[in-house]
Amino acid sequence: MTARQAPGIGTVTGIAAAVRSGEISARSVLQRSLERVADLEADLHCFNVTTAEKAMADADAVDRLVGSGLDPGPLAGVPVALKDNLCTEGIPTTCSSRILAGWIPPYDATVVSRLRSAGAVPVGKTNLDEFAMGSSTENSAFGPTRNPWDTTRVPGGSSGGSAAAVASGMVPLAFGSDTGGSIRQPASLCGIVGVKPTYGVVSRYGLIAFASSLDQIGPFAATVADAALGLEVVAGHDPMDSTSLDLPAPQLLASLSDGVSGTRIGIVEDFLSDVSPECGEAVVAAGEALAAAGAKVDRVTIPELLLGLPAYYIIAPAEASSNLSRYDGVRYGLRVDGPDAETMNARTRGEGFGPEVKRRIMIGTYALSAGYYDAYYGQAQKARTLVIRAFEAAYRNFDVLLTPTTPSVAFPFGSKVDDPIQMYMCDVCSIPSSLAGHPAVSVPFALSPEGLPVGVQVLAPALGETVMMRVAASLEAAAPGQARGPVTP
Amino acid sequence: MATPILVGAEPFSAAGGPIGVVVLHGFTGNPQSMRPLATALAAAGFSVELPLLPGHGTSVEDMVPTRWSDWSSVAEATYGELAGRCDRVIAAGLSMGGTLAIWLAERHPDIAGIIVVNPLVDPPASSFRDMLSGMLEEGAVSVPAIGSDIAMEGVPESAYHASPIEPMLSMFDGVDETAAQLGEVRCPVLLLSSRTDHVVPSESGDLLAARAPGPVERVWLERSFHVATLDHDAPEIEARAVAFVNRVAAQAMSETERLISPEEVRHVARLARLALDDDEVGRYAVQLSAILEHVDAVRRLDTADVPPTAHPFPVENVLRPDTETLSLDRETVLAQAPVAEDDRFRVPRIMGEAP
To answer: Do A416 and B271 touch (CB under 8 A)?
Structure first.
């Protein structure tokens, strides 16, 4: 049973303002966060590792800065959770895989160093589907994370640990990675806000690669403003990532409450029929709410978007099969010995990777292998072009598009894990933006008949974060309050 | 003249796709107890037949003259009818319905799988049967039944309130026959066992799991009693049943229609440097075939004039100024290596032996 309106940790903007002004100490905020982790972690399993001692030192450093009249930064004293595929110097980073168990990165991801520089206090590394491949966290080698709304159900994935940590009020801010929906889908299933930025807006340096042309880091928070602040802090050009866009970080908070008067919003009809009724109805209701707030809302069909899912399940595994070739038992992680290097490589990978990772490596290797490259990978790249062109045409008439985030609310453990295609279907609405490199955000907007959160997805063209987050803020204002966390399981 | 059928006890039938499921209710029960599961299977697109077994669903008097052979022949006929119009057939049953599903699996090696919820498999002790026979001789026709063994409050099972003795003894003979042939259950089995069951002891499930040579996936239902299909765990049973049917049907189908052979799987695994055991090779052959079938829309797309996209934005070669910067500390990096020696990574030999 879920106790609603349980006390959480507070908002990012509230904590940062209070710590910066000296009203509360970063240490006391951290203590509340760690207490909540201690209370709930056994039920939820959000974290692969927590770093209380290091966090105490970080919080004390923030308090010392405030004490000396210096500004620790826009996230002063904000406890933050990091998906365990973001490299953290001196702290184990596993991707929830046996092949990396115990590995300690020698450097911080750019996102991590930017968060630290902004005064944030990392409290731990969150659970994920192994190497970010999955939609439920059931593929973690270290056991699943449970949904704080109903612990018999999945929190979504792959960034399920980050989503559940925010939804349960352990931390007000967390980061994850999104390749085909891995931020937006768990945000939707856990009743919080999750943002996938435009490809290249946030540096991928130090994010352990899954599919490099799709991977993007983004924030989870209970409110749109908190997610916007988190994104502002980590965004911006980074010379360490050659795909990082040479642009300043977007300024989102300044215009967040400007409303949607005159904004052209398209409800994408193509996804409405194949999702569960509550997910489709939430989108229609969201459209009505935005129209009432002054937006111009219309319907649009973009059938090419349905090519996204099959194209993605060739492209992402193909890139993964190449990226994951680095786990060879030589430089880091697990090694299972053999008489020669090739046998050692194969045994290490056979034992170190879980079933879904192996499945995707196999699909990708097959799709790239001689005789099949053109039929599968080449065709998928062309389908990707068709998806991008279809978006371009739609954005001539609309500023943003609305779709369901997911085809269903949080599902019970075990209900999809043996059926890869059913699991892959979870990403059907989120994948098209990923293929196009566009930004998207999931906003909690409704509750299903069984009391589970339902998210609505706002899509925007490349670098359209400002209008996208403004629409998200309007949706948040119109949504019933009980549709979002924090919740106590 | 037969008594009218109880409300909710009507048989259920759904014309669906090429995968068929026979759903069977238990002794003294009726289709009411299995209707939610049958409906869920039908909603998933399967062809479903849930017959009303002879003597059931009206009044206990109607049941007195019926026997195991009456019920099993309806199960058999329903199976045959579905097998005639479907590519693959799965049987599912609760309690004695589970026994009947097992009995079908023993007789039909081509059944794709069975789903059994608290099946009666372990024959009752002879002392119990002797006692029932004794009561029969003394003129008793039936004994009080344990119907509605459901943890969830306010959910009745519309079963008879009495168990007729002669049909019960006949059912036990059927259980004897079924238990003796468990070695013939070679198909995948999804066994759902209530942790607390006041009707069928868990030894029945233990026996099935121990004796069936096919793969048995046993799931414990923590929150339900005997009639678990109407109890707290009903949603889980339904979700697992649908996933199981999808899986076993795909496995069975793939033997004839698979796109990727085990040999190809081994070849791709070698390219990917993945050591796979035989089980994994078989499983991936099935799953990769299913995934490739799913992405076939992309393969068949007419893309004559469409350029490929490798990256969302044009990627250019990025150069940095040629200035010295610190690289990672060698010792720190080597400390993470599985084996290091003399400031280097150590690996097994890479080249084959010289001829």
So the answer is: no
